[in-house]
């Protein structure tokens, strides 16, 4: 027979009651802060969608701008131009960034790695307008504005992002994996190519995609290097190509309300691109993590 | 022989008296490693010093000792894995078949090809079971009859029967014990001469541990094995020879030293050094 | 430090010493019963064997448990093995004491010559000394003491031979022959007790040196002089 225990109270009283109340208050504040952040995003998205709505037609994506303004016409030349420029920038930033990260984590002495790290952090902190001026001075003066100059400027913006993201996933690779390969009598370089990179591919791509999303929206570097109003779709990268950020910038300064609407529509396209790439990046990263932890 | 019913021949088998299994006589064995006055420093701290003994071919040599006595540091000298640790400095000599492992012109990558290693935690590559084993041979140019080589290695590691139907599955889907045997298969696939095992069963459950220990008994026919273990009973069970490392504490420094090296049976029934006695009987510290 | 393990070992050793003390008492009792023809005392000695067996079983179980749970090694392993063997030797000695007590009850009613009484008194005393030396050497981990058991056993053997010679001189009378026969067995039992004491000495030597060795062949072959 169990002996009935003395009745004990499990209700909060006195000091613990105060703690309980404080806990509830802090929880409420945190929820509020999170809601504000969400609301900000919501307002931006809603206002962009509402204002872009009148300009959203299939023609927006298929037609080139009207030479003399007015309603109708599209932004296809800017979409093609942006895609080309971002692709070229990625082509430049990806190998350099990944190799730099590999050098830092796999080969460099700690001090050298720290120095490179600092350099990349500074590069990341440089205002993009400064990057634009720098590339302008380097590639545009004496030549002409061109898509590859713009791509180069964007690559400079992307480089620290790609390198940093790659470095982070490389550091996630357990040392035991490197040891396993090295203990087989495999050289460091083969270890990197055969084990480390395949293992972290998802993570590296994630970093790249995020950097692409960021670069696609950059305006300042392109203003100096690739800001031309050209109505025709072109793929000639030796000349300046129209692109979405510059288009948004120029259209928004025009008096024509139809162009304003198109600017909003272009902004929506940009946002959609960033949203899709971010989601892709998340998917890739999750896959990469899974690969490192279990089957 | 004609069968004649009236003769009954009785075959008397010679009676074999169970002989006490003598401790193996290393004198007759080929020396694989001749460790001479080995010391390892990390910057200003000395991790191990004055280690001096021979490791014999086709034997299992266990290295035991308390935490921090430098047993892992020591075993990592044998295939130059310590090279990967920044600031590690190796003094003394390790002769591998007479050749100084730390001599000039010795390529650590080549050393590691001949002297394989299995680590404390199973560390299969995030690849398929097949690719885990095949990767080493592929990279090292042993592409001929790769399938057979993979099967041989997996059989050698007593894993073949368990994985033969799912070679394409991820190695990470295996259990811990299976992963560790896969790591052993991966190591023996490149046909090293020596297998170093750094606490290979410390992350495994008792059943998986038993399978690894049984496997080691089988492997010593083809390989020379050196195992670091903090589990004394494991050393007693698997090793032919046992080296006991201890910590020498003096002037605020703690240095790993080799205290005693002898046949395992001797170490666990009648050690010569009081420090060994105190450690194996659990009177240490 | 494995305190529990050490305590269990100490307890086993103490029980072993206790068993040894009981054997000494049984030996003294059986010799007295023989000399004084005290059948009641002899019965007591026979019943007393249960006490020895109790210790014997306790030690066997203790050793089994230690081996199963503590996996002793090195000195600990040798100590456990030595305890196991010494335990058996002591139990055998106690059995011989029972044999002597039983024989003392079967002895026909003849007046024994004082020379027999002297002879058994001497053998009994020597055996007692040997058991004491063996037990002390075990406690003190005294190799020299253990080795001295060989010499002590030689004295027991000699006394045994003298007793046997005297028995041969007892004559042809059937009662005398029966008496003689019983006395040979008593003498033999005492001689075996000495041998077991030497065996204990060998276990002590193993405990201390880690080597198995026979002290001498004397404990196994008995040269006729």
- The total of beta strands of chain A comes to 0
How many helical stretches of chain C? 6
CATH fold type of chain C: Methane Monooxygenase Hydroxylase, Chain G, domain 1
Taking the alpha carbons of the first and last residues of chain C, their distance comes to: 54 Å
Q: Enumerate the spans of chain C where pLDDT stays under 50 for 5 or more consecutive residues.
A: 218-225
Rounded Rg of chain A: 26 Å
Give the oligomer, counting copies of the same chain as homo and different chains as hetero: heterotrimer
Describe the structure.
The complex is a heterotrimer of chains A (295), B (285) and C (225). Chain A is mostly helical and 295 residues long. Chain A has helices at 14-52, 58-62, 76-107, 110-125, 128-140, 147-172, 175-182, 188-217, 220-225, 244-252, 257-293. Chain A has 2 domains: 16-55; 58-293, MetI-like fold, CATH 1.10.3720.10. The relative contact order of chain A is 0.14. By secondary structure, chain B is an alpha/beta fold. In chain B, α7 links the parallel β7 (194-198) and β8. Residues 1-5 and 18-22 of chain B have low confidence and may be disordered. Chain C has helices at 3-36, 39-70, 74-106, 114-140, 143-168, 174-209. Chain C is mostly helical and 225 residues long. Chains in contact: A-B, B-C. Chains A and B meet through α7, α8 and α11 of A and α2, α3 and α6 of B.
Summarize the structure.
With 285 residues, chain B is an alpha/beta fold. Helix content of chain B is 31%, strand content 26%.
Helix and strand layout, with pairings?
The complex is a heterotrimer of chains A (295), B (285) and C (225).
Chain A: H1 14-52, H2 58-62, H3 76-107, H4 110-125, H5 128-140, H6 147-172, H7 175-182, H8 188-217, H9 220-225, H10 244-252, H11 257-293
Helix pairs in contact in A: 1-11, 3-4, 3-6, 3-8, 4-6, 5-6, 6-8, 7-8, 8-11, 10-11
Chain B: E1 31-42, E2 45-56, E3 60-64, H1 71-77, E4 88-96, E5 99-100, H2 108-114, E6 115-118, H3 129-139, H4 146-156, H5 160-163, H6 176-188, E7 194-198, H7 206-219, E8 224-228, H8 232-238, E9 241-250, E10 253-263, H9 264-269, H10 274-280
Helix pairs in contact in B: 3-4, 3-6, 4-6, 6-7
Chain C: H1 3-36, H2 39-70, H3 74-106, H4 114-140, H5 143-168, H6 174-209
Helix pairs in contact in C: 1-2, 1-3, 1-4, 2-3, 3-6, 4-5, 4-6, 5-6
């Amino acid at each position: 027979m169990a002996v009935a225990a003395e009745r004990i109270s499990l209700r909060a009283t006195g000091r613990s009651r105060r703690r309980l109340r404080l806990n509830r208050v802090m929880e409420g504040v945190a929820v509020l802060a999170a809601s504000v952040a969400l609301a900000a995003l919501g307002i931006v998205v809603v206002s962009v969608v509402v204002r872009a709505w009148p300009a959203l037609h299939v023609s927006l994506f298929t037609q080139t701008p009207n030479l003399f303004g007015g309603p109708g016409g599209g932004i296809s030349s800017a979409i093609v131009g942006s895609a080309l420029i971002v692709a070229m920038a990625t082509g430049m930033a990806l190998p350099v960034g990944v190799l730099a990260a590999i050098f830092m984590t796999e080969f460099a002495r700690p001090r050298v790695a720290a120095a490179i790290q600092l350099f990349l952090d500074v590069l990341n902190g440089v205002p993009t307008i400064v990057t634009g001026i720098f590339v302008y001075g380097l590639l545009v003066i004496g030549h002409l504005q061109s898509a590859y100059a713009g791509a180069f400027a964007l690559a400079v913006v992307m480089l620290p992002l790609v390198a940093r993201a790659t470095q982070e996933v490389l550091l996630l690779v357990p040392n035991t994996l490197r040891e396993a390969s090295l203990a087989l009598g495999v050289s460091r370089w083969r270890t990197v190519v055969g084990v480390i990179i395949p293992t972290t591919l998802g993570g590296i791509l994630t970093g790249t995609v995020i950097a692409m999303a960021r670069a696609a929206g950059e305006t300042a570097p392109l203003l100096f290097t690739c800001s031309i109003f050209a109505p025709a779709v072109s793929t000639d990268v030796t000349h300046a190509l129209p692109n979405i950020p510059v288009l948004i910038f120029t259209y928004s300064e025009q008096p024509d309300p139809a162009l304003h609407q198109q600017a909003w529509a272009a902004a929506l396209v940009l946002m959609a691109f960033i949203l899709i790439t971010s989601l892709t990046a998340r998917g890739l990263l999750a896959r990469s993590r899974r690969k490192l932890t279990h089957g | 022989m004609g069968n004649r019913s009236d003769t009954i021949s009785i075959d008397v088998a010679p009676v074999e008296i169970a002989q006490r299994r003598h401790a193996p006589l290393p004198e007759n064995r080929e020396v694989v490693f001749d460790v001479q006055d080995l010391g390892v420093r990390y910057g200003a701290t000395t991790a191990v010093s004055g280690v001096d003994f021979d490791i014999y071919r086709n034997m299992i040599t266990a290295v035991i000792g308390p935490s921090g006595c430098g047993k892992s540091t020591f075993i990592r000298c044998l295939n130059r894995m310590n090279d990967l640790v920044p600031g590690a400095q190796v003094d003394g000599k390790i002769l591998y078949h007479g050749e100084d492992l730390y001599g000039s012109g010795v390529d650590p990558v080549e050393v590691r090809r001949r002297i394989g290693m299995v680590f404390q935690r199973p560390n299969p590559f995030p690849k398929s079971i097949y690719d885990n084993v095949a990767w080493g041979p592929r990279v090292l140019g042993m592409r001929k009859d790769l399938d057979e080589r993979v099967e041989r290695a997996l059989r050698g590691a007593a894993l073949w029967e368990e994985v033969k139907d799912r070679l394409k599955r991820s190695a990470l889907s295996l259990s811990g014990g299976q992963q560790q045997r896969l790591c052993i298969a991966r190591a023996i696939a490149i046909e090293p001469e020596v297998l170093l095992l750094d606490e290979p069963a410390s992350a495994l459950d008792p059943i998986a541990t038993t399978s690894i220990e049984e496997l080691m008994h089988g492997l010593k026919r083809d390989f020379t094995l050196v195992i670091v273990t903090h589990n004394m009973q494991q050393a007693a069970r698997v090793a032919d020879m046992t080296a006991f490392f201890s910590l020498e504490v003096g002037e605020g420094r703690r240095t790993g030293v080799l205290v005693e090296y002898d046949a395992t049976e001797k170490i666990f029934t009648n050690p010569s050094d009081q420090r060994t006695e105190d450690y194996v009987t659990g009177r240490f510290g | 430090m494995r305190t529990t393990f050490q305590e269990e070992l100490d307890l086993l050793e103490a029980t072993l010493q206790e068993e040894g003390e009981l054997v000494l008492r049984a030996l003294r009792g059986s010799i007295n019963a023989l000399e004084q023809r005290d059948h009641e005392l002899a019965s007591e000695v026979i019943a007393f064997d249960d006490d020895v067996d109790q210790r014997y079983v306790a030690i066997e179980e203790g050793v089994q448990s230690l081996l199963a749970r503590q996996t002793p090694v090195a000195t600990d392993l040798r100590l456990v093995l030595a305890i196991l063997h010494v335990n058996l030797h002591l139990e055998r000695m106690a059995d011989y004491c029972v044999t002597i007590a039983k024989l003392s009850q079967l002895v026909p009613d003849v007046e024994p010559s004082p020379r027999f009484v002297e002879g058994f008194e001497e053998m009994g005393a020597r055996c007692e000394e040997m058991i004491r030396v063996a037990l002390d050497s075990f406690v003190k981990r005294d190799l020299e003491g253990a080795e001295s058991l060989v010499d002590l056993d030689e004295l027991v053997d000699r006394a045994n031979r003298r007793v046997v010679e005297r028995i041969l001189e007892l004559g042809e009378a059937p009662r005398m022959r029966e008496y003689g026969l019983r006395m040979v067995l008593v003498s033999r039992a005492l001689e075996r007790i000495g041998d077991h004491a030497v065996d204990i000495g060998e276990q002590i030597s193993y405990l201390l040196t880690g080597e198995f060795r026979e002290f001498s062949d004397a404990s196994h072959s008995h040269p006729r002089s």
